[in-house]
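I'll show an entry:

:::
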Amino acid sequence: MQNLIAFLLPAIIDLINRKIVDTDLRFWISLTVCVLFATIMDYVLGGFSGVEAWAEQVLIIFGIAQLSYGAIYKKSGLQKMLRN
């Protein structure tokens, strides 16, 4: 479940970031969205079982989101379509 959500996050993040020009702010917004989704997933999967499990969720979701952005989303026409 978390892999699918993380795989879809680049499109969601791009919808939020499409009007923001500053690349640093775009990064922090994407990190915040990943932390938010990781917190929700950690709570749903284990009832917030501790800081280590939460940090692991954050790293997994952020990592998969970055990989799917670089490998698939950035090269697809979906990004151009969403930005218009």
